[in-house]
Putative low-salt glycan biosynthesis reductase Agl14
Amino acid sequence: MKNLFITGGSGLLGSKFEYLAGDRYDITVTHHKNPVPNSISFNITDEKDVLEKISALNPDLVVHSAAMTNVDYCEDHPDEAWKLNVTGTENIARACEKTGSKLIYVSTDFVFDGERGMYREEDETSPLGHYALTKLKGEEVIQKYDVNYAVARVSVLYGWHHRMNFVTWVIDELKNGRNINIVTDQYNSPTLADNAAEAILKLFELDKTGIYHTAGGERVNRFDFAVNIADVFELDPNLINSIESTNFVQKAKRPKDSSLDINKIERDTGMKMMGTVEGLEYMKKIME
Ligand SMILES: NC(=O)c1ccc[n+]([C@@H]2O[C@H](COP(=O)([O-])OP(=O)(O)OC[C@H]3O[C@@H](n4cnc5c(N)ncnc54)[C@H](OP(=O)(O)O)[C@@H]3O)[C@@H](O)[C@H]2O)c1
């Protein structure tokens, strides 16, 4: 059985691999501060820890999903964000070079400035904030090593997880009858974490290399996405107020439209990236 090592196994995306593919792969998932069943403790900023654990397991694939993902926190703590998202990623790449493991690095739609939308893999990057910059530098740093790598860019991840994400937060707020303000002028390609994990596994199985947009199959703004959530989960859409981002102060600048073109992943793997309603319906189905 092939052996997979998932950094950030306690995070939203990293938590999906065991459930999706635990029957066909030997999967090791890691945590940093929040253990989950069968996870091992791992700190990507500790070069020695990274090298020892990856060398001991000698995995066929390392999915590097661990990161500092709080965009506003990264803006306020640039050195900490760099240490995790760039130096930590370099530690992983160096270890993969030693073991000969394939490396799939999970990146973000925020590498683009969002002036245009529906970005393709070869489009010019231009990160707006520090989180985005560190994720882009992570993409670049792995290329310095002699590693068989792919980059999987995702966008607004959602799915069931013990920590809240946009979808589970909207469900919770609406269920409790609370009004929420959601922006109409930020577009992304919301990505069901389960679907992105499947795409990453396909990239491994087909030994694809280079950059892939493993995101949702639909460009949507946050407000419409929230209304979709209300519709699918039969909650009250009237509780959702539309606002513009100029009325909503956030520390880090966000791209206006960082939606991703997913033709390449669909063409090269034959798989389908789910649209928004399809992804939400999948969530509803597995909840029942
Ligand atoms: N969430 C999104 O909307 C989004 C959008 C675009 C791209 N991405 C990218 O997708 C990937 C997965 O995101 P996610 O939302 O699933 O992440 P997440 O739920 O925020 O989880 C982050 C993971 O990183 C781990 N981690 C933090 N510090 C660490 C350290 N020093 N050493 C080792 N592990 C550490 C955390 O472990 P503990 O919890 O155990 O401390 C957790 O497992 C990330 O690379 C992110 O940049 C996410």
About this structure: The chain has one domain: 3-163+191-218+259-274.
